[in-house]
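Justification of resources, computational component.

The compute hours requested in this renewal are based largely on the per-chain cost of generating structure records like the one below. Each record pairs the submitted sequence with a full structure-token output. That output is archived, and it is also reused by downstream analysis tasks.
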Amino acid sequence: MNDEIQRADYDSPWKDILETYFQQAMEFFFPKTAALIDWSVPYVFLDKEFQAISYDAEQGRRYADKLVKVRYLSGKDAWLLIHIEIQGEKEDEFPLRIYTYNFRILDRYKTSAISLAILCDSDKNWHPSTFCFTSEDTTLYFKFGSVKLLKYQRRFKQLQASNNVFATVVMAHLRTQQTRSKPSERKRWKLSLIRELYDQGLSEQDIRNLYKFIDWVMILPEGLENEFWEDFKKFEQERKMTYMTTGERIGEKRGQLNHAKSLVLRQLTRLLGEVSEQNRATIEFLTLEKLDALGEALLDFSSTDDLLRWLQQNQ
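The structure output for this chain reads:
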């Protein structure tokens, strides 16, 4: 399945990894803001509150968006709101959306939020950080924090040397971008990144969390995926550190399969309208590799007939 379409899903592991390692993410990407926060006081994710603020937003290719309440390092009762978005593709209206959310947060809580963006797209010329509006009597200038993952390509050795877990997250994302249409190379990098988790001396839980993220973003064709799993099992046996069981692996694979089916059906519905029950039933029996191929092919579909022909040729 096309990587960018694959990651249009709103239930991506970016949400999980951001929630699990929010402090590390802030320290890695936005150290100046991180330095303002009293990390000894638990922070709070305001998911329901943010849903009310973002009620009319289209579900573009965003990996995650969060509103977080944190305690200022100075001031016993001073709290700070942080709005952070992880954006998966270039979007012309993105700066406007960031500004709109910032204003809505101010309107609702009577306090300004720090707005931050992590840009995961592959367009090297797109790096928004401001929203501006000017007319004869009104000028608006809004600046938000913005980091571009693509720029870390030149700092890969620094990423490898970092002890921040988000360095691994960035490396997995970059290697995924770099190995599109290169599944064998992706398999090699996937195993290499996971080996490094063990070499870093991370805790078992950290290894499990980061393994889950790497395994999800660096999707392989079914045959290579099986080869990867066999290589990985041998590696764990050599290290005498068996963290990932066969049962967990089967569960993860089933989850990937269900995720891929759901995503393909949503994309087809957007493109062609409601998918018939017969076509849905056929899609339900496709392997992960076939779903991957359908995700690529549907970009060229213009009618239901195109879908029917593809299904007939690929059952």
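The chain is about 55% helix and 15% strand. The two ends are 17 Å apart (CA to CA).
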